[in-house]
Structures are given as structure tokens and as C-alpha cells.
Write a structure and sequence with these properties.
By secondary structure, the chain is of the alpha+beta class. It contains 14 helices and 24 strands. The radius of gyration is 21 Å and the shape is globular. It holds the Pfam family FGGY_C.
Length: about 475
């Protein structure tokens, strides 16, 4: 149904460390923005958690700050994977486990050795990693069964936020572990294969477009305003960026490196990554979200006494000749375009003449090599859009264009995911959709990295053989 002729919409993006909200005009203009930091706790070696109640409070806070008044709808997206367990009222029964968490690595190793992981990939196009919902649910079932007994729902971040705000217990087709991509519902045989059939009742109903009204007014938004559980952050960002043609892709250079390409078939190739069911029948996003990204660069900057503000000068003054970096700095290893929980970073070619700038350039190039590795595996053959904090650096964006050997259409601003959430909300309530944002800049290749990329692939292949035996 058509709710209004020219209604505004709000998109909320609940990130890992920041919650953002944006109010959009009908022509797609971002009118106002609000943001609140959230806390990611390191609960122990390889363990990362968040206070789900505090995360929901951050959503209320940004909506209060926006004060958008009556709107057509509010769309909520957020970080994917991890496990957010709540009771009937939507209150957390334990700290939410982040997608960065590595505690379920032994579960993944067990499923790999027994062949279960390959069965998951063959049936769904998804390969679980330590921080994804399936292994974490199994870990809790083995180590904290009483916690799951107290829970009513185990879902994604944005789904539990929507439940607290509206009372709706549901998820959308993009945010479902154990999904049969053909039926667009849970696969009972898969749950049985993974030994989780007895926890089926914790999985929320799968709806094409979950929507319910606000229980109470927030920041001038009236009670009853439709709140939509949009696709989670990866597909929401693709929707917000305007990825609409099979073969087009989106590169998000954030804490991690999220690479995804729109496809008309379920993922194949080396078992890794995700095949995300979209809201459009017959279309999937082949997503390879690598663990490398700005977090690894920040670590290198901190190690060398620099800050992100120093990046332009460092990239301008550095020379990576003779240096080789494998950028697998994440404590949980790597998950795309291959799965290797024991993956570790390497820096080769160091000597006393290497400067901090040289090391930063080599690291930025290595992250771009990972992007090419992922996007090639995902089947990119169309236009490439890019966003995320890393794209604020024109020099680094140029490195990506050079390494990828294709134009990179950069969408600056932090609202691509929020735009996708607002887009999903308007689509759900029947209002006119937002137009895709125009690129802020287009970077075209200026030099070839083909030889150095080939060296990178060889170094990765050699390292993988050692990771198999290295804890």
C-alpha cells in the first residue's frame, strides 16, 4: 500500500562499535545523522562480546537525537553473524557473542574433519566460521546449555533490536543461518547434521520482510510507526549502494574487508564465505567478508607510532619495494576467500632501512590484494562500488583501483548501510524507493600490480600449508 506521497524514512545501522542513524528525504538526500559509540568487550583470548541491552539503548539514543518526527518507516540493519540470545521479552540472557569471536574454533575444526562443513556449503553456499551463528550455537549448547534453556530466541543483532522496540520475533531471508536457499526457510536436515535440531525453537520465524510498529514513541517518531528488520549490514549496504545487476559488486573497506557480488546462482568454488538470499527471488549476493581490513592497518599504524590521520602523508612518502605483507592480523584467523582459523600475518623483507611509511604502504597494498582475491572468487565482472572508512583516503582508493585493475566508484559518507535499511523499509511499506547515491569519486587504474599480486597468491598458498599444522 502507498502510505505517503513524499515521506521521509529513517535508516539505522548498528555496527560493531558505532550505531548510526540517518533520516532520508524522498529524493535520497541524507538530511540528518546521529551516531553513538558502543563497546566491544574482549572477554578473554579470542572472545569478544557486547551488552545487547546497551546496543539497543544506543539505537533509541540516535533516534532521540535525530528527532525526525513522523516518517513512513524506520529500517534497522546491523552487524551480522555472532549470536544474540534473548528471552521472550527480548531481554538478553547473556552477553551477545560478536562475529569476531573465536571460541567456537574447535567446533568448526570438528565439523570440518567430519565433513559436516562441506555439507553446509553444498546445501546453502555458506561456510560457517568460528564467529558465525551455527558454531556459536553449538558451542553454547555444549558449554552453557542452561543459558540456551533460558533463551527464547537466538538471532542476529538487528533482529533482537527490532524485537525490543516492537515485540516482533522474526528475521529476514538474508539473516538466516541454516537456510535452504531454494525454500527460503530453515533446512531441518542441516540442523540435524550439525546436531542442533533440538534447538530449532530458538530460531525466529523467517519472513520476507519483517515489520511491526513501534511500541512507544521515540524521538518524535509516533508509536505504531512501521519498523522493518532490514537485511543485515552486508546486503543492506549492497542495496543502499545501488548494486542491481548480476556481476556488479560492492567493496566495503571497514574493520573487515567485505566483498560481495550480485549473482543469479548459489555460490560455488572453494568452500568459503556466504551466499546471501536477497529479497528479490532468484538473486543472491556472493559475499566473501575477509577478516583483514582497517583493524589490521590500525594495528600497524599503532605499532609504528602513527594514527589514521597520518595515512595520507605515509602513503605519499612510503615505498613498498622489497616488502611483502600477508595481512591476516585478526585473532580469529581468516574466513574469506578461504577459511583458516590459524591464519596469521607475516611481514617479509624488513631491514633497518625500512620506514614506517614503507610498512604502511605495503600493508595497504596487501589488503587490496585480499580484496582482489575475494572479488575474483565472487565472480565480479561488472561495476564495482566501494565505501567504508578506508575509502576516505584517496591515495588508498587509488591503490585499490590499481590492484583491482578496474574503476572503483567510491560512495563516501557513512550512511550506505543506513540507506539500504531505509530503502528496505520504504519497499516494505509500499512507498517510493530512494534513488541510488551517485559516486563521490571514480578512481581508474594508473599502474599494474599483476606481478606483485601473483607473488601474493603464491605467498598465501605457501602459508596455508603451514597454518594447517600451526595452532
Amino acid at each position: 500500500m502507498k502510505r505517503s506521497e513524499a515521506a521521509h524514512a529513517v535508516g539505522v545501522d548498528v555496527g560493531t562499535t558505532v550505531t548510526k542513524a540517518v533520516v532520508f528525504a524522498p529524493d535520497g538526500t541524507a538530511l540528518r545523522r546521529a551516531a553513538r559509540p558502543t563497546v566491544l568487550h574482549r572477554a578473554g583470548p579470542g572472545r569478544y562480546e557486547q551488552d545487547a541491552a546497551a546496543v539497543t539503548a544506543s539505537v533509541v539514543a540516535v533516534l532521540d537525537e535525530l528527532e525526525p518526527g513522523p516518517v513512513a518507516a524506520v529500517g534497522i540493519t546491523g552487524q551480522g553473524d555472532g549470536l544474540w540470545a534473548v528471552d521472550d521479552a527480548g531481554h538478553p540472557v547473556r552477553a551477545a557473542i560478536s562475529w569476531l569471536d573465536a571460541r567456537a574454533a574447535d567446533v568448526v575444526a570438528e565439523w570440518t574433519a567430519g565433513g559436516a562443513l562441506l555439507q553446509v556449503f553444498d546445501r546453502t553456499g555458506n561456510l560457517p566460521f568460528a564467529g558465525s551463528a551455527g558454531p556459536l550455537l553449538a558451542w553454547l549448547d555444549r558449554n552453557e546449555p542452561a543459558t540456551l534453556d533460558r533463551a527464547a530466541t537466538a538471532a542476529y543483532c538487528k533482529d533482537v533490536v527490532v524485537q525490543r522496540l516492537t515485540g516482533l520475533r522474526a528475521t529476514d531471508v538474508s539473516s538466516v543461518p541454516f537456510l535452504d536457499p531454494g525454500t527460503r526457510d530453515y533446512d531441518p536436515a542441516l540442523l540435524a547434521t550439525l546436531g542442533l535440531a533440538h534447538r530449532r525453537d530458538l530460531l525466529p520465524p523467517v519472513l520476507a520482510a519483517p515489520v511491526e510498529g513501534l511500541r512507544t514513541a521515540i524521538g518524535g517518531i509516533p508509536a505504531g510507526t512501521p519498523v522493518v528488520a532490514a537485511p543485515y549490514d552486508l546486503p543492506a549496504a549492497a542495496l543502499g549502494a545501488g548494486v542491481a545487476k548480476v556481476g556488479d559488486g560492492l567493496l566495503i573497506v571497514g574493520t573487515t574487508l567485505a566483498c560481495q557480488v550480485l549473482a543469479d546462482r548459489v555460490g560455488t568454488g572453494e568452500p568459503a564465505g556466504l551466499t546471501l538470499t536477497t529479497w528479490e527471488p532468484g538473486r543472491w549476493l556472493r559475499a566473501l567478508p575477509a577478516m583483514v581490513g582497517t583493524a589490521g592497518l590500525d594495528w600497524v599504524l599503532n605499532l609504528t607510532g602513527g594514527t589514521p590521520d597520518d595515512l595520507p602523508a605515509l602513503l605519499a612518502g612510503g615505498d613498498s619495494t622489497g616488502l611483502s605483507v600477508l595481512p591476516f592480523f585478526a585473532e580469529a584467523g581468516e574466513r574469506a576467500p578461504f577459511v583458516a582459523p590459524a591464519a596469521r600475518a607475516r611481514i617479509d623483507g624488513l631491514h633497518t632501512g625500512v620506514t614506517a611509511a614503507d610498512l604502511v604502504v605495503a600493508t595497504c597494498e596487501a589488503i587490496a590484494y585480499s580484496a582482489r582475491h575475494c572479488l575474483t572468487a565472487a565472480g565480479l565482472d561488472g561495476e564495482l562500488f566501494a565505501c567504508g572508512g578506508g575509502m576516505r583516503s584517496g591515495a588508498w582508493a587509488q591503490i585499490f583501483a590499481d590492484v583491482l585493475d578496474r574503476p572503483v566508484r567510491v560512495l563516501l559518507g557513512e550512511e550506505v548501510g543506513a540507506r539500504g535499511a531505509a530503502q528496505a523499509a520504504l519497499r516494505t511499506v509500499g512507498d517510493a524507493e530512494l534513488p541510488p547515491p551517485p559516486p563521490t569519486a571514480v578512481f581508474t587504474p594508473r599502474r599494474s600490480y599483476d606481478d606483485r599480486y601473483a607473488d601474493y597468491l603464491l605467498a598465501v598458498a605457501n602459508a596455508r600449508s603451514t597454518w594447517r599444522t600451526t595452532p
